Amino acid sequence: MRFHCLQHVPFESPGNIEAWIKQRGHSLTFTHLYNKATFPSLNDFDALIIMGGPMSIHDEKEFDWLKKEKKFIANAIQAQKKILGICLGAQLIADVLGARVYQNKEKEIGFMPIRFTEKALDNPFFQGFHLEETVFHWHGETFELPKDAVHLAYTHACANQAYLINNQIIGLQFHLEITPELLKEMVKEGRHELVHAPFIQSEEKNLTGQNFIPRDKDILFGLMDRFFLETQIH
User: Fold this and answer.
1) CATH topology of domain 2-229
2) Using alpha carbons only, how large is the chain's radius of gyration in Å?
3) Where do the domains of the chain lie?
4) Three-state SS at 210
5) How far is residue 198 CA from its own chain's centroid?
6) What is the pLDDT of residue 234?
7) Of residues 10, 88, 61, 72, the one with CA closest to residue 39
8) How would you write 86-147 as a 3-class SS string?
9) Interatomic CA distance for residues 11 and 13, integer angstroms
10) 3-state class of 45 per DSSP?
11) Buried b (16+ CB within 10 A) or exposed e, 168-196
12) Per-residue b/e over 65-76, b at no fewer than 16 CB within 10 Å?
C-alpha cells in the first residue's frame, strides 16, 4: 500500500506508525506542512495518516495551510481513502465532518489509563486490546463525535478519545505511535506545558513512562494490520 502522512511539526513524526509501514513493506510519503509543502494528488496514495501538533484546528490565521489541509482531508474522505488521525489529526477529521472541536476542561499530558467501550472491544479492528490500556496523551482540546461515528474510548478527563466511521476512518486522541526518541522530543518542545495540574505529569514521570511503549506498539501494529490490510472486515 502507498501511505501518505500529513506532518504538522518536526517533533511529532509518525514514530511507530512509520515503523509498521516499513516493516510490512509499504511505501510512505510526506507533506511537511511546516515547510509549506504541496499536497499530493489523491491518485498518489491509498491511505492517509494525519499526525498531531501543538496548534489548534482553529488557528487558521496563524497557520494559513490549515484551510487547504481541511479541504484535502475532505477530498480524501470523499475518495474513500482509509484514514488514521492522531490527536490534532482526529480533531481535523471531526471538524471537516461538521463536529465541534473545543477546549477540554483539563489538559491531559503523560502516560495515563484509557478505557475502551464495549463497541470497541467487540470490533475486530480492536482485537487484542484490553478494557483498559495505558497510553500517551498530549492534548488540551477535544472533539464531539462526528456523524455516524462509533465511540471507542474515554478517560476520566476526556469523554471522547477515539472513534471509528464506516470502517474507513479511525480518530485517536492519544499517541500509540510514541517511541522513546519521539517522547523526548515532545517533552523537550512542550516543556512549558508541564505545569502542576490533575492530569499533567511531570517531565520525569513522562520520561519514565517509556515502560508502556512496547505494549502500545504491539496494539498499534495489530490495529494497523487489521484496519488497513483486512479490508474484508465489516
Assistant:
1) Rossmann fold (3.40.50)
2) 16
3) 2-229
4) helix
5) 23
6) 37
7) 72
8) ECHHHHHHHHHCCCCEEEEEEEEEEEEEEEECHHHHCCHHHCCCCCEEEEEEEEEEEECCCC
9) 6
10) coil
11) ebbbbbbbbbbbeebbebbbeebeeebee
12) bbeebbebbeeb
Distance CA 57, CA 19 (A): 27
What count of residues does the chain have?
234
Enter the C-alpha cell of residue 183: 517522547
Q: Taking the chain (234 residues) in consecutive chunks of 10 residues, what is each chunk's mean pLDDT?
A: 97 98 97 92 98 97 96 98 98 98 97 98 96 98 97 97 97 98 97 97 96 98 93 43
- Mapped onto helix, strand or coil, the DSSP state of residue 17 is helix
Q: 181: which 3 cell numbers?
A: 526518541
Which pLDDT value is given to residue 51?
98
What pLDDT is attached to residue 195?
A: 97
Contacts of 194 (CB under 8 A, 6+ apart): 109, 187, 200, 201, 202, 203, 206
Residue 49 and residue 5: Cα distance in Å, rounded? 5
- Sequence-distant (6+) residues with CB within 8 A of 3 are 21, 26, 27, 28, 29, 45, 46, 47, 48, 49
Q: How far is the C-alpha of 75 from the C-alpha of 72, rounded, in Å? A: 5
| The pLDDT value given to residue 229 | 85
Place of cell 479492528: 125
Chain position carrying cell 490565521: 61
Q: How far apart are CA 164 and CA 142, in angstroms?
A: 16
